Amino acid sequence: MTPDHELDSLREKRKKELLALNIKKELALKKKEEEALKQKDRQARAAEIVKQVLEPEAVVYLNWLSKSNPAVALTIKDTIILLIQKNMLRKQLSKIDIMKIERELTGTVSKIQVKRRGKEIEDLNENLKSKD
Q: What is the number of structural domains in the chain?
């Protein structure tokens, strides 16, 4: 074999390798795009299902929550879908129901505080306990 012929064969071999590599990359990219499209479709269907079991006011609140705290909103949507799958929902969920689920997820405890004239602010529980 002459050096030119060897060089040509190496170039051809390298071209084939690069072509195969490009094809693999394109297939991987196409597969990734299809997965993203499927995921988007699933999320859209899940959102529609969730909207069907929420009152209009609750939908507005959940949309606001999605912007302010997306992780909690996503967990709430997943919880609602789980409740639907287990047939545990008897009625449409209200804004208050969504707020309760949010508080349970974030660990926030609702407090009612009372301020009387001449006294400091205290929790309603403490106020009621002190009267007993």
A: 2
